[in-house]
Amino acid sequence: MKVNPPKATFYLWLNIPVKSDSIKFSSLLLEKANLIVTPGIGFGKYGEGYIRMALTVPVARIRQALERLKKVL
To answer: Which domains does the chain have, with CATH numbers?
Structure first.
């Protein structure tokens, strides 16, 4: 997945790497990886094709989430 490091926030915007919309992809991550992400479409039409993740937990939990994400991809 392509990610641009945030400059002044604790959110990451990740492009969806598969042919899907942001709501379906977010649902897939919840079902298959127990990850909660925000569908980009919730932020307007330009958010479609992305999901948003909040970096509000310890680094160890973020690494764990990324490992789960890799298993789904």
So the answer is: 11-72 (3.90.1150.10)
Neighbours of 19 (CB within 10 A): 7
In order along its 73 residues, the chain shows pLDDT tens digits of 777 778 888 999 999 987 889 999 999 999 999 999 999 999 999 999 999 999 999 999 999 998 999 998 8
Question: Which secondary-structure segment (H or E) carries 60?
Answer: helix 59-72
Angle, CA 15 vertex, CA 13 and CA 19 arms, to 5°: 150
> Model pTM?
0.84
